Amino acid sequence: MSINTFFYNQKLIYSPIFRKLLLSNVRTLYFQRNYKKKVNSNIVENIVRKMSKKNGKYKSNEPVNSAQLIVAGSGSYGTASSMFLVTDHKKYLFNCGEGTQRICNEHKIKIIKMEHIFLTSNRWSNFGGIPGMLLTSQGMGIENLTVHGPKGNVQLIEATKKFAPLTISVSEAPCNTNEPFKDSTMTVWYVPIKKASRHETNILKQTTNDNYDINQNGKRILNESDSFNKKEKTEFDDTQPEEVDAMSYICKMQDKPTGKLLLEKCLEKGLTPGPLLKKIKDGEDVTLPNGTIVRSKDVCEPAVVGPTFLVVECPTFDHLGDFVNNISFLKYHIGSEINIKPYCIVHFTPSDIMSNQIYKDWMNKFPKETHHLIINEKNTCRSSEAIYRYQHGLHLIHPDIFPILDTKFMENSDNEQLEINRDETLVHYAKSNLTVGLIPKQYIDSSHCIKLQPKEYIQNALDVENFLDVLAEHQTNVAALTKTLPQTPLYPKVTFLGTGSSIPSKTRNTSAILLNTEPDHSILLDCGEGTMNQIIKLYGESGAKKVLASIKAIYVSHLHADHHLGIFGVLEERRKVTNESLYAIIPNQLFPWFNFYDTNFNKFLDNVKLINNKDILMDSPDMRNSKIQGLYDALKITSIDTTPVYHCQFAYGVSLELISGLKIVYSGDTRPSTNLVKLGQNCDILIHEATMEDELHEEAKKKSHSTVSEAIKIGNDMNAKFILLTHFSQRYCKVPRITDGLDLTNIGIAFDNMQVHYSELPLLPLFYTPMKVLFNEHFNDLEDRAFKRQKKLL
Fold this sequence. Notes:
This protein is α/β, with parallel strands linked by helices. It has 3 domains: 67-255 and 306-445, Metallo-beta-lactamase, Chain A; 257-303, no CATH class; 467-793, 4-Layer Sandwich (Metallo-beta-lactamase, Chain A), CATH 3.60.15.
């Protein structure tokens, strides 16, 4: 039988399904037929794999043909800790720190086939991105998701439903050590880790190589006189302990009973496309119509043994004893069911514990050829390149208002050496896009990891058509206007950490504004997911700590998740810097969410004073309590007032009056509001949402947002001296489209990482023209869309 006959069998070619499947390969097949080249067996593999689909999903027994571990968030200071297992069938997520969905957006990691999330501990750095990820997942049509890990995570997800419209069904895996998770991709054994007593913890911290050994079961042996030795476990616990707040995983990819089809041998044996070919591919022997028996092993590559990888975390010294004992003993517990020589071990363990000699010795017990991938706070990668690229272009427009982001973290290509007894080339410090190949072969690929190229970013901006000429004129205008500016107070200072709506994009994060009333006194106006990461990118690690110490209050305008999911991340980092009390001015409906997290996960409310937005309503001084005066002193203000606005239930606008007499008003999300006009009368700065362009007025009404013109009109109605527009739809991820003819003499367009002192506000109206030119492709696309909309209306 010829190759042509194999593919163009008359019965097969008249099958509509096969013709549709074959369509994508027509050009390749045509080339091969006419030039008499061998057909690549991968084409047959693809066709067989496509034919096995049913309703867009793979059959449960379909073998995995490719699998890689892909780092999303490196775990560096303020950055998400997260990693995907990506196969040709499904995706699995290991940990999901704040900002994971933004990383996926930038690096095109699709989550459409994700059905399982594995969490290694109840730390916010592992969990904080899940609410946002769930909202995105259900928007993409994912209906069910299973969470694996310590108890309590699903309860936290359920708690988010109080303010997030989650309809996705989330279930909690039982995570029993004697009942591993198993599907067509892999088998996962659970390794629960519980805390030791305080006495045991102290001994662990003091233990070194000089006072302990490892027995034949891989356990530590301390001196007999040591009381810890009396409590040493002698066997693995088959049930998850009641108080488990850490979980590690041993993951074994399923064996592949047969390898790739060997096309030439299929032809020799007389096989044609059809049911028999599928059975052969599944490892079954078949009988041809002429009675010939064809054995699968004769026409397929040999079976493939699935590789093993471990995902581990020892979150604190309190867990180290149980971690070492359980992980070490598990290989004896499971026996021959698992390949105990893992190709890779992924460590989510904090750096101080990884530096402990006990942990290092545990690592050294694995084979020398095992790779170690480290995802923790000592890594350097910030997981994004796009925002650095755009900031370099904006920096040319004004170097102070658009400062260069911190890049010191990228100067050292690797983390500190762990000095473990092995080849350090097998220790990998995570960067976004670092890939660990598992199937069909094992490899480590760092070629797609983020690399910053500042000179290239600047040159690319200067190469934009007409930008150099526009920039020269712009700089002349800025210099001339700067000379004429009157002497005004330097503060307040407004820094935009997030200027996008709904979900983060690679250029605009969700809402967060840092308002400095004085150099060392500030308030966060909303705090979307990833705000801590934004602070670190802008100010660097040491500068971020100063910013955290300056934050005396956080204001949340309403219940929508994109305005407050970053609070816990900020609070957890702030308490490492200062024990000073912080005021959280939030809708009363968020109090249970704060209390639940404080009670079940990390304590933080001891130095957080909660104030209900409703308690500081304009013209309602009788509702104010004793906390307010402390807030005034902390922020160096003389008043703070709120008012209900038209967006969702419990949405508020806010005004602050500084000691200097200057008044700043923030709208939050809202339709044009007469309440806000009253609140902001004669204010010096109005920060107002401008989610939609003017031609999308009906969509703005439907979603209870404002258009650009509506925001400007509100500012004019309240006689605001200057208007800053923010909270743009992500369709305007680079620059918004503003209707021609609008007076922009007192209008500023906000961008992420833009910081402007009060005295610099008059410069901002000059920026829109060079921004349009710098981002001309994006702006021209907006114009084309607007033209098509108008054309439809004619």
